[in-house]
Structure formats: structure tokens, C-alpha cells
């Protein structure tokens, strides 16, 4: 058999193909109704609309006195405004009667303004006189120190949109509008297989020539952190029949499949053909002009994304980060950003070493971020090392991309470091 070469797609064309296939042929997973605690990190299937105003009444934001703002106009330390003091506003209940003109009602933070009152003055600017009158020594404008009814959320407002991944503060707004149960996508199930005759499990002691399966564990972490449910399916030998059978079995119970190792076109690389046998349309891209990550397979099998990742740990994780995370997000119903890779948080940092790159190929360097206090900026310290090393990823905080059209980046340039650990 002669040498075969992996025909490569550019990252941009592979991404366009991938995003197009996801949008055209992959639907979101089903939705389930859950309580608030279970909604954290999950993606909303529908927008949540407020049924009521929040707050439902005008509230004081200070401890002090509810007043009519007009009664305080012109008040100063030299010439205070004087008020009759009425009964205190109870917490958690309406004041028993409207506020008479020229009167002030003691009120605590969060208390409901009595009808007629339109401002609150802080206790610090008030003095209770021996005759029971209240001297107020600064004016309050209408609405001052008040959160008015509906100021936070208005009835009918969409407080959270469909496709939004719920954060802790979102649980707070859901509670505020009384949405104790919400409809979210179930976590996409992602089956994970490792392939290679040399691989053994984490509990085994590797014999000569054997190595422990690193990728399955790191990928479980990435999937779970991104809101998926990882289904680790174990290690498969470099055998075409076993690979096809185990891949089909793993995918049967999953929404997406990841296989690491065996994705090139060497004599022991059967992943491409195994993936192609799983369903329609099969392999979309095999080989991408990126480093690490060239021997990558992107495929769909009957509406389910399937990725063949390179075996080298750093390659596998970079490719999963670039192509796997958008697929997972798509399954979870997160809208994609118009065909572009989803925008991920990045830090601008000054590159401290030159980064080489062959033109036409995208390079993804791992980099550690170090805060440079005197300069008031981040420094990006590349963590060099072969893609077979997992320690380079561990020492990195994110990735620096050298675009295909560049032949490198120079020390001293400002670059973007896309942070690890985001979905
Ligand atoms: P492959 O992509 O199968 O050619 O593998 C490339 C390199 O990655 C080889 O050195 C493999 O031993 C290694 N490798 C493959 N899969 C894994 C894995 N799951 N964990 C750790 N190393 C792996
Ligand atoms: Mg292999």
C-alpha cells in the first residue's frame, strides 16, 4: 500500500460545514420541566415572561421616613421642614391609611410606601424633636430612595430568552417573578469512546508500551462542564469490526458520540470508516489544517453529531473545544452565532514569545496568563510542548490562535487568549 495523505479543509471551511450541518440536520434534545435548583446550568426551552410587576408596590430603599417629596422642598440644615409623625409602616404589609399632607411615616428598607408618599428620606437627615415633630434637613425629589412598582421587572416583560443557559442570578429573577418551575432542555447525552491497542484503564498498571486512557476522563470533564451528560463507553481495540459495533452501541443511547484516537489514515486508523457506517450523511470533514488537531473527523449520523478526535491529548481537547462544544450547545438549544464559532470570553494579553505558524494552517498555542502589575496588563506566556503532552494543557489558562493567513505572531503583540472552562 502506498502512502495516503489526509486531504485537509481549512478551519474556516470545516467550521462553516459543521455549523451548517448542525443547523440544518440536528434538532435540540427534548425539554423537561424542572424546579429552580435543577435549572442551574440548563438551557431554557422557552422564554420566561413575567406575569406580574416586580416589585409589586413602591418600596423604600432606606431606613427613614416616607414623605411627600413636595413637603420637603427647600429644606436645609438652617431651615428644616417640619412633619407630624404618623404610625410606622409595618414590614410585609400595607400601611393602614394614606399619608396625610405634611406628615412623615417611619419606614424600614423594603417597606411599602403608604398611598400619598412618593419619596423616602434617610433617618440620618431627620431629627425627632422633643415635641414629637420631625425635622427634615434636606429635600427629597419625587421617587428618591424608592424602587417603584415594576421598576425591576414589568408584567409582560421577557425576563429570560429561549436558549439562555441559566446562571445563579437568573434563578433569582425566576424566583422574583414566581416562576418556581421552568422548562429546560435535558442535558445532551454524549457517549465517549477511546481507541488504541496500547490503552489501559486508569485503575490498571500499564505494561511495557501501554499508556493509560487520558482522553476519556478529560472529555468527561469537558462535556459535564459544558452542561452535557457524559456516557463513558470504555476502550476499544484497533479493530474495524469492534470499533463499528461499539460505536453504534454507544451512539444508540446518546445524542452525540466522541471517539478519540485512530482518526488519521494510518494502517491502524479505522475511525473514519467506522463513523461513516453509523448513519447518514456520515463523514463531512476528515482532516483539518490546524495544529494540533489535523486528523479530525466531523460527521453526522442520522441527526446526531459524531466527532473523531486525534489521540494526542492536547489535540483531542483543542478539537473538542473548537468543534465539540458548539455541537453540544446546538443540541442543548443554544442559538449559534450566525455561522461563526460561538464567541467565548477572551483576555487581551501581551505575548511574551514569538509563535511560529505555517501559512494556511491555524495554530492553537496553550498559554498561561500572568498579571503584570507595573504594566497593568496580562502577559501571555506560551506553554510549548508536543501535542502528546497533557501537562501543557494543565499549565495553560487558555488558547492563543494564530490565524491561517498569518505566518506567526511576534513577541510584544497584544493577542487574545480564549479562556478554558467556558461553554
Ligand atoms: P492516534 O490518534 O490513535 O494515532 O494516537 C496518537 C497518540 O495519542 C498515540 O501516542 C496514542 O497512544 C495516544 N492516545 C490515543 N488515545 C489516547 C487516550 N485516550 N489517552 C491517552 N493517549 C492516547
Ligand atoms: Mg491509535
Strand content: 25-35%
Looking at CATH, which topology of the largest domain would you report? Molybdenum Cofactor Biosythetic Enzyme, Chain A
Name the shape in a single word. elongated
CATH class category name of the largest domain: Alpha Beta
What's the mean pLDDT score?
95
Neighbour order of strands in the largest sheet: 7-4-6-5-9-8
Q: What is the CATH H-level superfamily of the largest domain?
A: MoaB/Mog-like domain
Listed once per kind, the bound small molecules are: adenosine monophosphate, magnesium ion
Termini Cα gap: 43 Å
Give the quaternary arrangement of the chains.
Answer: single chain
Rounded to the nearest angstrom, the radius of gyration is 30 Å
Topology, number of strands:
28
**Which structural class do the helices and strands define?**
alpha/beta
Helix content: 10-25%
Whole-number tally of structural domains: 4
Count of DSSP H/I helices: 9
The CATH architecture of the largest domain would be: 3-Layer(aba) Sandwich
What does this structure look like?
The chain has 423 residues and is of the alpha/beta class. It has four domains: 164 residues, Molybdenum Cofactor Biosythetic Enzyme, Chain A (3-Layer(aba) Sandwich), CATH 3.40.980.10; 47 residues, Molybdopterin biosynthesis moea protein, domain 2; 89 residues, Molybdopterin biosynthesis moea protein, domain 3 (Molybdopterin biosynthesis moeA protein, domain 3); 74 residues, MoeA, C-terminal, domain IV (Beta-clip, Beta Barrel). Helices cover 20% and strands 29% of the residues. The protein has a six-stranded mixed sheet with strand order 7-4-6-5-9-8. The chain has a six-stranded mixed sheet with strand order 16-13-17-21-20-18, with helices on both faces. Strands 22-25-24-26-28 form a five-stranded mixed beta barrel. Helix 5 runs parallel beside helix 8. The protein is elongated, with a radius of gyration of 30 Å. The two termini are 43 Å apart. Adenosine monophosphate (AMP) binds next to helix 5.
Amino acid at each position: 500500500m502506498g502512502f495516503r495523505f489526509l486531504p485537509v479543509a481549512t478551519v474556516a471551511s470545516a467550521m462553516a460545514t459543521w455549523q451548517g450541518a448542525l443547523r440544518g440536520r440536528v434538532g435540540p434534545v427534548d425539554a423537561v420541566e424542572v424546579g429552580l435548583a435543577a435549572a442551574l446550568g440548563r438551557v431554557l426551552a422557552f422564554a420566561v415572561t413575567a406575569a406580574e410587576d416586580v416589585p409589586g408596590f413602591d418600596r423604600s430603599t432606606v431606613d427613614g421616613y416616607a414623605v411627600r417629596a413636595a413637603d420637603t422642598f427647600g429644606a436645609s440644615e438652617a431651615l428644616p421642614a417640619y412633619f407630624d409623625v404618623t404610625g410606622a409602616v409595618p414590614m410585609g404589609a400595607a400601611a393602614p391609611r394614606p399619608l396625610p399632607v405634611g406628615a412623615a411615616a417611619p419606614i424600614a428598607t423594603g417597606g411599602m410606601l403608604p398611598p400619598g408618599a412618593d419619596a423616602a428620606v434617610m433617618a440620618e437627615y431627620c431629627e425627632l424633636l422633643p415635641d414629637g415633630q420631625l425635622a427634615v434637613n434636606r429635600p427629597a425629589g419625587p421617587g428618591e430612595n424608592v424602587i417603584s412598582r415594576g421598576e425591576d421587572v414589568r408584567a409582560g416583560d421577557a425576563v429570560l430568552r429561549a436558549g439562555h443557559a441559566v446562571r445563579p442570578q437568573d434563578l433569582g429573577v425566576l424566583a422574583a417573578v414566581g416562576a418556581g418551575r421552568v422548562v429546560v432542555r435535558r442535558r445532551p447525552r454524549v457517549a465517549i469512546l477511546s481507541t488504541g491497542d496500547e490503552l489501559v484503564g486508569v485503575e490498571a498498571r500499564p505494561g511495557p508500551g501501554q499508556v493509560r486512557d487520558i482522553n476519556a476522563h478529560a472529555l468527561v470533564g469537558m462535556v459535564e462542564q459544558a452542561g452535557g451528560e457524559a456516557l463513558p463507553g470504555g476502550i476499544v481495540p484497533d479493530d474495524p469490526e469492534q470499533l463499528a459495533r461499539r460505536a453504534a452501541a454507544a451512539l444508540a443511547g446518546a445524542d452525540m458520540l466522541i471517539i478519540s484516537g485512530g482518526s488519521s489514515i494510518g494502517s491502524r486508523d479505522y475511525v473514519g470508516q467506522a463513523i461513516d457506517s453509523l448513519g447518514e450523511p456520515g463523514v463531512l470533514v476528515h482532516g483539518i489544517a490546524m495544529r494540533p488537531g489535523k486528523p479530525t473527523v466531523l460527521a453526522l449520523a442520522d441527526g446526531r453529531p459524531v466527532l473523531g478526535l486525534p489521540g494526542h491529548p492536547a489535540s483531542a481537547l483543542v478539537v473538542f473545544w473548537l468543534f465539540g462544544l458548539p455541537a453540544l450547545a446546538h443540541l442543548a438549544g443554544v442559538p449559534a452565532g450566525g455561522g461563526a464559532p460561538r464567541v467565548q470570553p477572551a483576555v487581551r494579553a501581551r505575548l511574551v514569545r514569538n509563535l511560529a505558524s505555517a501559512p494556511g494552517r491555524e495554530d492553537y498555542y496553550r498559554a498561561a496568563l500572568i498579571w503584570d502589575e507595573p504594566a497593568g496588563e496580562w502577559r501571555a506566556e506560551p506553554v510549548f510542548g508536543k501535542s502528546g503532552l497533557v501537562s501543557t494543557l494543565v499549565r495553560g489558562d487558555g488558547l492563543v490562535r494564530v490565524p491561517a493567513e498569518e505566518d506567526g505572531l511576534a513577541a510584544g503583540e497584544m493577542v487574545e487568549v480564549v479562556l478554558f472552562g467556558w461553554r
